Amino acid sequence: MSRNAYVLLLLTMLMWGGNAVAGKMAVGHISPMVLTTFRWLGAVALMLAIGIPQLRRDWHVVRPRLLYLFLLGAAGFTLFNAAMYTALTFTTVINVSIEQAGMPMFIFIANFVLYRIGVSAGQVIGFSLSMVGVALTATHGNLLTLSEQQINSGDLLMLAAVLLYAGYTIALRYKPAIHWKSLMSVMAVAAALTSLPFMAWEVATDAAIWPDMRGWGIVLYTAIFPSVVSQLFYVRAVDLIGANRAGLFINLVPIFGTILSIAILGEDLEMYHIAALVMVLGGIWLAENSGRKRAARD
């Protein structure tokens, strides 16, 4: 069970790392709200094409929880991605990486406050080690520059996005027992609908940038992989090992983002990238091993 969750989470974080790179590549080729809307319209088309028969069978379960699923899709899909894409136009990838890596901490805190779910010493140490690895990547190997980072509107927006997705992760425990096709179909529709006012605002303020060829390529990638495939993998992984253990893997996003930046954008591979990867993976292994033992005792 845990092994399946690990594979799903690794693939999820790889796709989310690609989403961050796509968001940066989108600047000047498609505006954040247009990208968010087109992305989820594409996801809706994909999900409804394969999911309508199953949704009809699950409708008696979906209908009483429709508002809840709608809010999940709005918070976890629309608002998070709209905030992240917008933040990338105001702040640096360094800042966004550090801020996104704080998500597991918020998940730990929320689980403790709401459900008194504790964490072991091994989980705390592992989480701290992986955070250092993320910071090492984000600061290009010089942790001293952390004190030089400036807080601006993009940073505050990304912190709000992190809080939203942490809340989404916690809230997944209350989703109804329905087929994944039904779950994703409803939440994708919710994401598409709630993104429309944001795109309308962008158009009304003359801030909209309609996609060129690169923009359409980014829409296609984000509609299939970060929007549908990765979300399915993440939901299933949370089901298998819980939000605390699954959330820790989010620290891999900036690592995969760096690797993809090297492969796609031609950035150089440095020794600190390798050191950071070892620290992040080591921290995840330590925290996950401790969390698995704690779960077995409980």
From TrEMBL:
The keyword Oxidoreductase does not apply. The chain crosses the membrane at residues 38-55, 67-88, 100-117, 124-144, 156-174, 186-204, 216-234, 246-265, 271-287. The keyword Glycoprotein does not apply. InterPro entries: AA-Vitamin_Transporters, EamA_dom, EmrE-like. Coiled coil: none annotated. It is found in: Cell membrane. Keywords: Cell membrane, Membrane, Transmembrane, Transmembrane helix. This is Permease of the drug/metabolite transporter (DMT) superfamily.
